[in-house]
From TrEMBL:
EC number: 1.1.1.306
Source organism of the structure: Citricoccus nitrophenolicus
SUPFAM superfamilies xref list: GroES-like, NAD(P)-binding Rossmann-fold domains
Keyword Transferase: no
Cofactor section: Zn(2+)
Protein's name in the database: S-(Hydroxymethyl)mycothiol dehydrogenase
GO molecular function, one term: mycothiol-dependent formaldehyde dehydrogenase activity
NCBIfam families: mycoS_dep_FDH (TIGR03451)
Domain Enoyl reductase (ER): 17-363
Length: 363
């Protein structure tokens, strides 16, 4: 029987979000209903509100979530009722050309629930990243549920952040950038994703980890999460400072967690010869980049983009939970505050002003 629950909905561009009653249908084949426990407030949710992703309002917001599976549809075998899960937006299809090449982390045909959740009047909702987890319950494709073990009630808020931003940053360092023991890594932009990339570089064994930002508060936090050096690019030239901290050569790996032409050029010129650049910050559609092609050729190495940290949830989520429980990855440090559904507009303001790494809704 369909269920009615409270949820946070964006009804129009740049309008305040509202708490609405929504209808959750029974799960169909390959689908699951998840009772949400926690959900992080991510920049992507704000982009939905601002119209930066599309104009298919109303949107059901929220996607960095932990929950418990409460119902499954026909044919679902990977999760069962009662399983604790972290939701993901990469439900791999297993059939596209990337999957057939064994590169499931690049799946080009990830899928969501076939049915739509609605407002009480029947208006269909577009769930953020196919999840929509600022809600007491949500309907997703079963492949969007990644079962995890060893997560206590107190750890739910931190664990759920692996569903998007924190995983994107850690994955940019470990999966895309392939950070190695003893290497130097510089991260430009120390919001949630960039700070997670620093934590990922530390986890990978990098020995020189340089945090670059304009905000001293973010640099101080980066030191807590694993940075060995900081560069305030309001006061220093970032490229020169990174080179000075790496013997004059530049870093083995530079991660651009901002996604602007200016920061990408900094990353490009701050790497060592044959070094790697990873773009994980998301540019806006109008941005363009101009680089001398001879410099691209002459510096060698690789220039990569990181989609969701090149993450394969079934491989990465439990591994990182295990690192968390071993004390090697401080996910708790990313949770600045816990809030209720009614506090989300205020959380967007704090995020925009740089006052938080993550606000997390606890239901």
């Amino acid at each position: 029987m369909p269920q009615k629950v409270k949820a946070v909905v964006a009804k129009a561009k740049d309008a305040p979000v509202s708490i609405e009653t929504i209808v959750i249908p029974d799960p169909g084949p390959g689908e699951a209903v998840v009772d949400i426990l926690t959900c992080g407030v991510c920049h992507t949710d704000l982009h939905y509100v601002q119209g930066g992703i599309g104009d298919n309002y109303p949107y059901l917001l929220g996607h960095e979530a932990t929950g418990t599976v409460s119902a499954i549809g026909a044919g679902v075998t990977d999760v069962a009722v009662g399983d604790k899960v972290i939701l993901n937006w990469r439900a791999v299809c297993g059939e596209c050309r990337a999957c057939k090449k064994g590169q499931l982390q690049y799946c080009f045909n990830t899928h969501n629930a076939a049915q739509k959740m609605t407002l009480e009047d029947g208006t269909e909702l577009d769930p953020a990243l196919g999840i929509g987890a600022f809600a007491e319950k949500t309907l997703v494709a079963a492949g969007q549920c990644t079962k995890v073990e060893g997560v206590s009630e107190e750890q739910n808020a931190a664990a759920g952040l692996l569903g998007c931003g924190i995983m994107a940053g850690i994955g940019a360092a470990i999966n895309t950038g392939e950070a190695k023991r003893g290497e130097s890594v510089a991260v430009i932009g120390c919001g949630g994703v960039g700070t997670a990339a620093i934590a990922g570089a530390r986890l990978a064994g990098a020995t020189t980890i340089i945090a670059v930002d304009l905000d001293q508060r973010k640099l101080d936090k980066a030191l807590e999460l694993g940075a060995t050096h900081t560069v305030n690019s309001k006061e220093q030239d970032a490229v020169e400072a990174i080179q000075a901290l790496t013997g004059g050569f530049g870093a083995d790996l530079v991660i651009d967690a901002v996604g602007r032409p200016e920061t990408y050029k900094q990353a490009f010129y701050a790497r060592d010869l044959a070094g790697r650049v990873v773009l994980v910050g998301v540019p806006t559609p109008e941005m363009t980049l101009e680089l001398p092609l001879l410099d691209v050729f002459g510096r060698g190495g690789s220039l990569k983009s990181s989609w969701y940290g090149d993450t394969l949830p079934s491989r990465d989520f439990q591994m990182l939970i295990d690192q968390y429980n071993l004390g090697r990855l401080d996910l708790d440090a990313f949770v600045t505050e816990t809030i209720s559904l009614e506090d989300i507009d205020a959380a967007f303001e704090k995020m925009h002003s740089g006052d938080v790494l993550r606000s997390v809704v606890v239901l």
